[in-house]
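User: Watch each token:
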Amino acid sequence: MVKKRLAYISSESFVHGDKPVLLALSKVYEIGWFIVFKENSNASKFKPADIEAYAQKIGLQNTFKISRKIRSRNPLNIYKDFKDIVKKVRIFSPDYVLVEGAHNPYWPLVARLSFKSKKMVFGIHNAIPHSSVGGCFHYLRDMLSFRLFKNYLFYSSTQKNIFDRHIPGKNTFHIDLFLKDYGEASQPRQDVKHNNFLFFGTAYYYKGLDILLDSLEILSKYDMKYNLKIAGRFPDNDYLNHRVLKNNPNVEIDNRLIPNEEIPDLFSKADFLILPYRDVTQAGPLLIAYNYNLPVIASDHDWFQTKIKNNETGMLFRSKDSQSLGSILFQAICMSNEEYALMKHKLSRYIKDNFSEESMISKYKNLFKSLK
């Protein structure tokens, strides 16, 4: 049976989330993978050679790597997108086109003019921007992205609901992101202490690292023994000057972009991932944690409540409340080994029930059949 063709268009920033999607969908579709790279970007975790190696590993025959030297706000991107992306997609001649986000503010307009609505779905991660993201070009990108298309894919049910309320009449779908697998840990842990905490990722303001640091004062008050590793880049030095970090032997800081190959050991050495976000659409670190069956302590935003069963598969605290988080950390440290093992068992069952490859494939097949 001849497979239908799917053009999958995304940027380098989404590659790790795309890899398991492409692996699954390649079993039912012939895929053309079109990836936009920013040349010489310090934030890039993947290079064209990495993409080529993965494509060969899973048997993708049609992989197109598009490099960009100019800034995303440069209007010259309009011409380059027609030349470098649209032309190649048309040669590939897909039955369906999935566009994941906008790599520049003009791309939604180019995509709308280039692809038939009945064949195309536009993927959106954030229906509302994070509190630390903004500017006129972000506004232009979002205005065009949210209004030009008929079919939309959201990777969060909460974001889909927000979009449906504010922009009714669109054909919208929700499919969760796959778990993020960075490979196996070199030395799996044997001991269980449930007092090893991890904060992972770039410490933007909306991620609430200051809330976590303030919460540690409760642990210090009761002389609790714990270890907190903060792994990721700091956009500014405010956090480094935080009073809790001064001469605190319980906190370890790794202020850099963490290489992919170090991530398995980083998560396997932790007992809980801490996500004290001020706002959230979806959280990549949670998808990494769940891949390694690591329980998560997070703020009680709607999206986290859809992914964490409080006191069963993880723990929730009142958003923006360091006292509440401190109390939850205290509770986590005081858990018995049996209680912690039961939480990990329940999390493992939840992951198996909600993140299977079969269910994901079925959802994408239904999506493409329902395009308008």
